[in-house]
Structures are given as C-alpha cells and as structure tokens.
Amino acid sequence: MTDRIAARPAWSVRLWQYRDNPHRGWTNRLFSDAEVIGAIDGAPIGPYTITELAVPVGHEPGQPRPVLELASWFRDPEGEPSASGSAGWTGLLIHQEIAALLSLVLGIRLRGDDPLIRRRLPDGRINTYEVAGRVVPSAPTPSWASPIIPGLSGRRADFASVRGHLESLPRLSPQYTVQLVRAARQYADALWIAEGEPELAWLMLVSAVEVAATSHQVATEDYTLLLKKKFPRAAEALLAAGGEELLAEAATTEFTGLINSTSRFLNFARTFRPGPPSLRTTDTAAQLSWSSGKMRDAFNKVYDHRSSRLHAGVAFPWPLLIPPPAAGDGLPAEVFAGGPYGSGDTTWPAAELPMTLALFAHLVRGMLLRWWTVMADEAATGAG
What we know:
This protein is of the alpha+beta class. It has 10 helices and 10 strands. Mean pLDDT is 87; it is low at 1-6.
C-alpha cells in the first residue's frame, strides 16, 4: 500500500518528534457543559499538560465553562519541510486537534478558546500574554425543552483513560493519526452542534465512521483487487498506462471513496460495534436489538438517510431531529416503537426511523474508540 494518504503524522502528534523549546509556548482553555474529574496533577502527557479548572463563581449549571487547561511549549521541527497538499491536513490547529481527541475519549462536548502565548523568564517564572478579542466558544441554542442527546450536559467524565489513548498516538502509523483526528473532529463537532443542528450532527457522525472505515479498509483489504472488481474498465486503463504500480496507487488514493462505500460502512460498524449504553431503558420495546441482523438493518437505514440527504437533498425524517421519546420506565427510548410518526402532513413508519441520534452518537464513539485501541495494540505488538 502506498503511504500517500498521509506523508507524516497529524500536527498535534508531530510535537512528540520535535525538540522542546522551554522558553516560549501556548496555553488555552477547553470549554464544556460536562464536568471532568481526575485531571488535577498536571503531569505531562508527551508535549502537553492538561489540568482541571475550578468552577467559576456564578457559573450556571448546564452552560459551557472552562473545564480544562491545555498547554505546551513550542517545539523546533529542526528544518522539516512544509507539507504539500492536503494529505496530512486536518483543518485544525494543534490545540483543536487535541480538543477533538479529548472529546472523543471523554464522550463530552469540548471546544477550546484562542491560545495565549506564554514565556519562561530567566528566573523560572512563566508569564502569559493576553490577546485582544479572545473568542469564547458557545454551543447553539437548543430548540427543545429536553435535550436531543440526553446525559451530555452535566455529565461527570473521568480523565483516567485519556493518558493511555494520547500516549499511543506517536506509535501509530502517520496516516492513522491523520484519519483519527479527522474522525474525532467530526464526532466532536457533531456533539457540539447537536442540540441546535441535529441534521448536521447526523451527517457528521456518519462521516466520522466513513473516515475510519476507509482507513481500516485500505489497511486490511487488497484495494487493487477491489478496483479490478468494481471498476474493471478503469483498472484496465490504469494497467495499460502504468502497470500494477499505477493501479495500486490509484486504488488507495483516487478510488478510496468509491469502492464499496456502503459495505465499507456496514463492515466497520460490525467489526467495531460497542456494547449497549451503560444506562439504558429496561423497556424492551424501546430498545434497539443488539443482534447482528437488526443492527445491520439499522445502520443501513442510517446510511440511506445520509446518502439521500447529501445526493438528493431529502431531509432526515423529522422524528430523528427531536428529543427521543420516553420509554415505559421514563428513560429515553433508543428506537421509535409503534408509529407512524408525523409532522405536518407527512408521516414516517417506524421502519424508517432506525434509532435516536443519542444512540447513534454512543455507537459512533464506541466504534471509533475500539478502532483506536486496535490500532494502538497492533502498533505496540509490532514495536515489540
């Protein structure tokens, strides 16, 4: 397989490779409507320190507040040339990449403000310099009295698992770090906007899975054979123009988004599907069956809605864009039992409503974390 997908790691991961400059650095605050516990010692994680922040005086519960401080010293790339093209481009700054990864690991809304420059003085003291017009992140205003994704606001997230995940990053192959950050960004953005833009959240969550699924397929399947099977005439033309080498290169670059997109999505979901939520309704009629067949049908329907929205402009069914119905025990339902469900003069049968946005967000996070863990375990085994 060619490594043109990403010639080097994501920007935030490259800091592990550079020489420390202990005199100039940056720091910024990470905002959330959740609570993060356990990040109190500030022990470095590679080039970063992440510390817990106290609740500001007068803070209103449920509103985003600074929960963590992220800091690092600038590091010297020692003459490394600039990247060319978008192969390793995530569209994020270093602190934004780390915030997206933390959002995924912790399962919370998390977004940073503008970084501040800090300098270490000759006597060891550190000065931090404010910047004009520092932007504080704010989440969209909810449209409903109850949340579309229950349990996020006010959630207590344990920082304990963060260190192991972040410390695995330098061991991963460069292309994996880039794809991981891209997927984490889609997940983090989906959580941040879900209450105000639930349809966009659906699209971003599906895209998060697609990013990871494509990376996993490229790594585990013979793309040359897939290209020959799915696009035989194109494969013949590539072979005539440049032989097997050109065919292999095209298969893992230009054709990655075209080869078995639906199957790729469903296979990734099957391979990395997590268990049910720890807190779920006991009303079996309101639960999504965790059987392979039922789960595949549900994922397939989600992907159908996503494709119709992107390629035909067909909006997601209205019931998927509102808070989940209450199950018989009062907890949020995972599926839409009974039906039909309607808005205005349009109705949808339950078969068109595969699961709630809240459950899909749980599944996407679980899949991405299991994929990350598998990559880290494989890298550790290979290093050993």
